[in-house]
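4.2 Preliminary Data

To establish feasibility before requesting continued support, the project team ran the inverse folding procedure on a target of 256 residues. The structure was first converted into the token representation described in Section 3, and no sequence information of any kind was made available to the design step. The complete token record follows.
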């Protein structure tokens, strides 16, 4: 217990990668609270769909979310281990799949009128892709920290949960009469929240251990890793220049 590193609160606050994770979590949670928590109400009050007679169909989306999470985890691990994709690229790609794609399918469903089965299908596809975030943004904390991943999870989840207070107010303002047209506006707001929070994550997310995670006795390890990365980047740059030089010589042909 005495060797436990001190919590680097200032490092947390000034890390753009952590803020990218927090903003992505807020966007994700807002869409979950708005859509998942209110989907039964939307079916019954707006589409006048009988949930009692179609309980199996209305529960299908939640089963799809579970399946999406089960598939995404092993698939993401396999592609990373086979070096088909970097960890960072994987986190960004799969987070996008679990953020923008679901909101897009829900938006499409909002314009399908009162066709309950089609709307449920769109919502099922939404939650299938929503499940993939558990192999992306939801594990990004582990990429950033060895010692404080749990605290990072608490920060992002805690701030994300605050959107649960905003979501009902958004619905009350945009859909006071529970009409289809009003809910279409709600779906556009959800899509916007998903898109812009994901855009921030794409530009600023990180997937490597952060400097503040290294205690003083391990800082030499951090510096060594940075030197190795710098050397590898320089070598890659030199190799690229050599290839361009060789190509130019080949294109010029043998000298007279």
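Position-by-position output of the design step:
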């Amino acid at each position: 217990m005495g060797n436990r590193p001190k919590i680097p609160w200032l490092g947390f606050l000034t890390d753009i990668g952590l803020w990218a994770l927090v903003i992505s979590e807020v966007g994700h949670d807002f869409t979950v609270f708005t859509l998942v928590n209110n989907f039964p109400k939307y079916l019954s009050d707006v589409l006048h769909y009988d949930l009692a007679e179609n309980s199996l169909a209305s529960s299908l989306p939640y089963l799809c979310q579970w399946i999406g999470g089960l598939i995404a985890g092993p698939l993401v691990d396999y592609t990373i281990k086979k070096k088909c994709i970097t960890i960072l690229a994987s986190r960004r790609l799969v987070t996008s799949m679990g953020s923008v794609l679901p909101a897009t399918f829900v938006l499409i469903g909002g314009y399908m009128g009162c066709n309950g089965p089609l709307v449920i299908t769109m919502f099922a596809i939404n939650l299938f892709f929503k499940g993939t975030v558990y192999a992306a943004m939801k594990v990004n904390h582990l990429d950033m920290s060895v010692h404080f991943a749990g605290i990072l999870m608490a920060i992002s989840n805690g701030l994300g949960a605050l959107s649960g207070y905003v979501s009902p107010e958004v619905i009350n303002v945009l859909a006071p009469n529970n009409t289809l047209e009003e809910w279409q506006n709600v779906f556009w707001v959800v899509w916007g929240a998903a898109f812009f929070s994901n855009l921030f994550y794409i530009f600023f997310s990180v997937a490597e251990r952060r400097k503040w995670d290294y205690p003083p006795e391990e800082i030499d390890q951090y510096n060594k890793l940075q030197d190795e990365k710098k050397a590898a980047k320089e070598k890659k740059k030199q190799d690229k220049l050599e290839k361009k030089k060789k190509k130019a010589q080949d294109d010029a042909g043998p000298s007279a």
